[in-house]
Amino acid sequence: MRGKVPLGDLLQKVEVGVALAAQSQPPPEGEWGVLRLSALTTGKFASEQAKRVSAADASRRSGLEVRGNDVLVVRVNGSPSLVGSGRVVSEVPPRLLLSDLMFRLVPDPAKLDPKFLGLLLGSEGVRRQVKSVIRGTSGQFQLPQREVKALSVPDVPLAEQRQIVAAHAAFERRIAAVERVLQKLRVAEAALVARTTAGTQVRVKLGSWLRRIEAGKSPLAEDTPAGEGEWGVLKVSAVQRGWFDAVENKVVRDPALINPRFEVRPGDLIMTRANTEDLVGLACVAHKPPSRLMLSDKTLRLVVDHSIADPEFVELVLTEPGVRRQVKAAATGTSGSMKNIGQDSIQGLLVPDVSLDDQHRTVAVRAASKARMDSLRKQLVKLRAIQQGMVEDLLGPRPVS
């Protein structure tokens, strides 16, 4: 059967980035910057997530400039599920430095393809190992460098690695095509909100549209989704822009930890209280949630006053650029950790004062595109499941001749 080797045997080195005094704004074109952790935690490599640093400080660290084909890994994060996640850099502007919250894994080119290494880092076997060796307490978790090198990975010949990468890339092209259509629909949705609010000069506090905000709790739970008839507690990833992903939950087996008062009900408007900077404060309506799913302490139920506001319009308006800027300004937390927004700050968000009739009309116009978006998301889920299954199968045991 195919053997296993320590990942360190396939690497030339593991590099840690640098902590530099940095300004909060991104670097102008041609100037030096250091990557934010959010460059690696938003699903894809996001080079725009960077902070400006002085040329004098950067020049002394130019050896840590990020380059194309680099394999970057989250070293420290407030969310253990993000620690150890990796991204392969395809294109990157010049003069961006590696942060001290990240590793750069440098493969031995005779043994390991960088893109194959990226697939390994996302495989179930490696993710299980990472989870078992993470160190730290609530709020700050880290992956030691020695544990990265000790990860047990399949010993796959270089030619076969490239075949697996090519098969994965074919799925990526299909997924990208669906995502482009989704993005066009999101742009149209944003334009719809902009048209609805264009003539609205007055803003009101979001709290005036709410009866109350209810918080959940996070009981001890296993990191696997609840099965039929079981209770689960939501992960923050259950709240997506424009849709509720019920699969993102953790099973709760101890009956003493189950509280039906926190159960998600059809029509609930759920918001993330804690998440990464770009995702904190997102909200979605849970239209047909399965039974026995509870709010976690990182998710909130916004109980809307239906005589004043439509929950689906509130979901939409919370994505408006002006509101998102308020959310980011109100969110607290240090670099590398989860951002949090308090209930008082949520109540105080200023939203366009749109009449209930106009809200209903906007939601009705959105209905067709929302149905199309839901269909596309289901396609993406299916494609990604097939893609991941294919990769896991190709990484699995093989007879040794």
What labels describe this entry?
single chain, 401 residues, alpha+beta, Adenine-n6-DNA-methyltransferase TaqI, Chain A, domain 2, Helix Hairpins, 3 domains, 4-stranded antiparallel sheet, 9 helices, 25 strands, 21% strand, globular, Restrct_endonuc_typeI_TRD_sf, Type-I_RS_S_subunit, endonuclease, hydrolase, endonuclease activity
Q: Can you walk through the features of this model?
A:
By secondary structure, this protein is α+β, with helices and mostly antiparallel strands. The chain has 3 domains: 4-154, Alpha-Beta Complex (Adenine-n6-DNA-methyltransferase TaqI, Chain A, domain 2); 156-193 and 359-401, Orthogonal Bundle (Helix Hairpins); 201-353, Adenine-n6-DNA-methyltransferase TaqI, Chain A, domain 2, CATH 3.90.220. The chain is built from 9 helices and 25 strands. The chain has helices at 55-59, 114-122, 124-133, 145-150, 158-197, 311-317, 321-330, 343-347, 356-395, and strands spanning 4-6, 11-16, 33-35, 50-52, 71-74, 76-77, 86-88, 96-97, 102-107, 135-137, 140-142, 152-154, 203-205, 210-215, 231-234, 239-240, 243-244, 249-252, 268-272, 274-275, 283-286, 293-294, 299-304, 339-340, 350-352. It has a 4-stranded antiparallel β-sheet, with helices on one face. The protein has a 4-stranded antiparallel β-sheet with strand order 14-23-19-21, covered by helices on one side. A 3-stranded mixed β-sheet has the order 4-3-8, with no helix packed on it. α5 (158-197) runs antiparallel to α9. It starts with a strand and ends in a 6-residue tail after the last helix. Keywords: DNA-binding, Endonuclease, Hydrolase, Nuclease, Restriction system. This is Restriction endonuclease subunit S. InterPro entries: Restrct_endonuc_typeI_TRD_sf, Type-I_RS_S_subunit. GO terms for molecular function: endonuclease activity.
